[in-house]
Write a structure and sequence with these properties.
single chain, alpha+beta, Immunoglobulin-like, 3 domains, about 30% strand
C-alpha cells in the first residue's frame, strides 16, 4: 500500500514537471542577504500557474517565511534630447493583479519575490518550493565604520561633488533620472550624499507610466508595490555601501578611483556634464563580483582595479575635419576634442600624428574637454573617383593609442548635386563612452534632416559663385512650428563669414559672421503634412575666391532635439564643423585634373 502511494506521488511529480516545467527558482546563481533587510529575488517561472497560490519559502529550521510575489514590467526609456539617457523604468504589480491581464498584453517583465528574513536567521539557508539554496550573508553596511578603527572613513562617504556642480542643469537632470529607478538610485545617492549610512534619500516622484498594468496601479495593492520598489532600491544602495566600504578598508585610493569612475563630471566649455560609466550591466556585474563569498580582500581589490583599468583611457572625437586652408602652405587644420580619463588624477601628455604632418604635443588635465589642431596636407580626389580621401590621425594619451579618421580633401561638386545630411544627433554621454564613436548618431525618422546642394544658375552665367542653392527637408510632426529652426554656417570653422537662422514659418535672421553686409538669403519655405522644406539661395559672398564653399548646418526642432552636419556636436559647442565643397569642378569652371589629362591626350595622341 505504501509502495503504491509513493509510486503515485512520484508519478504525480513527474507529470507535474512535464506539464509545468521545473518549479519556480532563483534567476541568479547566488542569493545575497543582509541582516534585517528583505531579499528581493528575481525568479525563473516556467508557467505562471505554478505561483498562483504564492511561493512557499522556508528556512533551514522549517519556519515559513512571508513572501510576496510581484510582476515587474520594464518600461522602455523615454526618448530624451538630453546629455544622459534615462534608465529603464520598472513598475511592480502584485501577482494576483498581474494575472488578471493576458500575458500577451503585458509589457516585457519578470517575476520577483520579496522575502522577509527575520533577524535570527543568520547562517541559515533558504528553501524555495522544496529546493535548498545557500545564502551569501553580507555584513551590515555600517560595519566598515567600525572596522576603520579611527581612520577617517567618514570623509569618503560624502557627496561626490560640490553643490555648484550638482546644481548644474545637466547634472541635476541626470540625478533626477537616476533617482526615479530603484535600479540606479544608489548612484544618485552616491552623488548627493556619498551613500552615507546615516543619510536617507527621498527620491523625486517618478512619472506615471502608461500601459495595461499601470492603469491598475491605484488598486488596493499599490502600497505593497511601492514598498517593494523601495526595498529593491534600498537593497541596491546597501550593496554599494558594503562594496565601497570594503574597498576603502583595503585601499582608500582604489576606493576613490572607483567613486570617481561612477560619478565623474567634466567641464565642457565651462559647463559641468556627467561623464561616468552608465552601463547598468557593467556595474551590476562588478557588484556581483565584489560581493562574492569566494574572494579574499586581495582578489577583491584586484577585480576592482581590473574593472577600472578596462575603462576607456580617453575619449576623442573629430570636431571639424578640415578647418581652414592655409593659402601659403595649402594645408588644413582639423580640430579634435579630448577628454582625459587617467588611472590617477592629474595631467596627461597628448601626442597627435598624421601622415606628412608634424607631431603635436600638449599637456591636458582630466577636468575638462580640450581641443587641439594638427596641420595636415591637402589631398586631391583622384580623377574619375567619387570617394573622397581620408587620413588617419593617431592619438596617444599616456599608454593608450587611439585613431580617428578625418576627411582629407574638399568634396568635388558635380551634377546632380552634393548630398547634405542626414544631420546627426548630438554627442551624448553614452555615445562618447561607447567603444564605437559612430554609435547612437542617427536621428529618428520623424526628426531627420536631409538635403542637396546644387547649382541652378544658367550655363552662361560667367561668375561660378552665383546660383548655388541648398535644399533641405526637415521631418517633423509640427511643420509650421516657428520653434523648429535651421542655422546655416558658411566660412571657416571658428571664423565664419556668416550664419543665418531659418525658421519653419519662413522667417530668416543673420545671427553671426565677419561680413555684416553680406547679401540676404533668398529663402522659400513650404510646409507639408509631415515635414517642412527650405530652398535657400546662397549669396555669392559665401564662396571664397578660391571657389571653395565651407558649409555647416545645425537644426533645433520644437521638442529640443538638436542635430548637426557634417559632424556631431557637443553641448556648449558654439558652431558645427564644416565640409569644404570645391565648386570649380561643377561644369568645368576651371580645368579639373581629369580635363587636363584629356586635353594632354588630345594634343599628344598615343600610337
Amino acid at each position: 500500500m505504501v509502495k503504491n502511494y509513493l509510486s503515485i506521488c512520484a508519478l504525480a511529480v513527474l507529470i507535474s514537471s512535464s506539464v509545468f516545467g521545473a518549479p519556480p527558482r532563483p534567476a541568479t546563481d547566488r542569493i545575497d542577504a543582509v541582516v534585517g533587510q528583505p531579499i528581493i529575488l528575481r525568479l525563473r517561472v516556467d508557467d505562471q500557474i505554478q505561483i498562483r497560490d504564492g511561493l512557499r519559502v522556508q528556512l533551514d529550521d522549517a519556519r515559513v517565511i512571508e513572501t510576496l510575489v510581484f510582476w515587474v514590467e520594464y518600461l522602455p526609456p523615454l526618448h530624451s534630447a538630453g546629455w544622459t539617457t534615462p534608465p529603464i523604468g520598472i513598475h511592480a504589480v502584485r501577482m494576483r493583479t498581474a494575472m488578471m491581464i493576458d500575458r500577451d498584453d503585458r509589457l516585457v517583465g519578470s517575476w520577483f519575490a520579496q522575502i522577509s528574513i527575520p533577524l535570527d536567521a543568520v547562517g541559515q539557508g533558504l528553501w524555495i518550493e522544496g529546493e535548498r539554496y545557500e545564502l551569501n550573508w553580507l555584513p551590515d553596511p555600517e560595519r566598515a565604520m567600525l572596522e576603520a578603527q579611527g581612520r577617517d572613513i567618514e570623509s569618503f562617504f560624502v557627496p561626490a561633488h560640490r553643490q555648484p556642480v550638482l546644481n548644474a542643469p545637466p547634472v541635476q537632470s541626470a540625478i533626477t533620472q537616476l533617482a526615479q529607478s530603484p535600479l540606479t538610485r544608489w548612484r544618485a545617492r552616491l552623488l548627493l550624499d556619498g551613500l552615507s549610512t546615516s543619510a536617507r534619500f527621498i527620491a523625486p516622484d517618478a512619472p506615471r507610466a502608461e500601459g495595461y498594468l499601470s492603469d491598475l496601479h491605484d488598486d488596493i495593492s499599490s502600497t505593497e508595490s511601492e514598498n517593494f520598489l523601495e526595498a529593491l532600491a534600498v537593497q541596491n544602495e546597501i550593496r554599494w555601501q558594503i562594496i565601497l566600504g570594503r574597498i576603502w578598508l583595503i585601499d582608500p585610493d582604489l576606493a576613490e578611483r572607483l567613486k570617481v569612475a561612477l560619478t565623474r563630471v567634466v567641464l565642457f566649455d565651462g559647463h559641468p556634464l556627467p561623464m561616468w560609466v552608465s552601463s547598468q550591466s557593467k556595474t551590476d556585474k562588478l557588484a556581483h563580483d565584489l560581493l562574492s563569498p569566494w574572494v579574499d580582500d586581495e582578489l577583491r581589490a584586484n577585480r576592482a582595479r581590473a574593472w577600472l583599468d578596462a575603462l576607456p583611457r580617453a575619449l576623442v572625437w573629430v570636431v571639424d575635419d578640415l578647418g581652414h586652408l592655409e593659402p601659403e602652405t595649402s594645408r588644413f587644420s582639423p580640430t579634435l576634442a579630448f577628454v582625459s580619463l587617467p588611472p590617477e588624477p592629474g595631467d596627461s601628455l597628448v601626442r597627435l600624428d598624421a601622415p606628412r604632418s608634424r607631431s603635436v604635443l600638449e599637456t591636458i588635465n582630466d577636468q575638462a574637454v580640450h581641443t587641439l589642431q594638427i596641420s595636415t596636407p591637402k589631398h586631391e580626389t583622384p580623377p574619375e573617383q567619387t570617394i573622397v580621401p581620408t587620413h588617419q590621425i593617431r592619438i596617444r594619451i599616456g599608454h593608450a593609442e587611439i585613431t580617428r579618421r578625418g576627411i582629407a580633401a574638399p568634396i568635388p561638386a558635380s551634377p546632380p548635386g552634393i548630398r547634405v545630411g542626414p544631420l546627426k544627433g548630438d554627442w551624448t554621454m553614452d555615445g562618447l563612452m561607447n567603444p564605437n564613436p559612430n554609435a547612437q548618431s542617427a536621428m529618428p525618422i520623424i526628426r531627420s534632416t536631409v538635403g542637396i546642394l546644387h547649382r541652378t544658375a544658367p550655363p552662361n552665367e560667367p561668375d561660378p559663385r552665383v546660383g548655388w542653392t541648398l535644399f533641405l527637408e526637415c521631418a517633423t510632426q509640427s511643420p509650421t512650428n516657428p520653434d523648429d529652426q535651421i542655422t546655416l554656417w558658411v566660412g571657416a570653422y571658428e571664423n565664419p563669414l556668416a550664419a543665418w537662422t531659418i525658421n519653419a514659418d519662413g522667417t530668416t535672421e543673420l545671427v553671426g559672421g565677419s561680413i555684416p553686409t553680406i547679401a540676404d538669403l533668398g529663402v522659400r519655405v513650404f510646409a507639408l503634412d509631415d515635414r517642412w522644406t527650405a530652398q535657400i539661395e546662397l549669396p555669392k559672398q559665401s564662396i571664397g575666391d578660391d571657389l571653395i564653399l565651407s558649409i555647416g548646418i545645425e537644426r533645433s526642432d520644437a521638442d529640443g532635439y538638436h542635430s548637426a552636419w557634417p559632424r556631431k556636436m557637443t553641448p556648449g559647442q558654439h558652431e558645427p564643423g564644416r565640409l569644404l565643397v570645391d565648386i570649380s569642378t561643377w561644369d568645368g569652371f576651371r580645368a579639373s585634373p581629369m580635363n587636363q589629362r584629356n586635353q594632354r591626350n588630345q594634343l599628344n595622341p598615343q600610337p
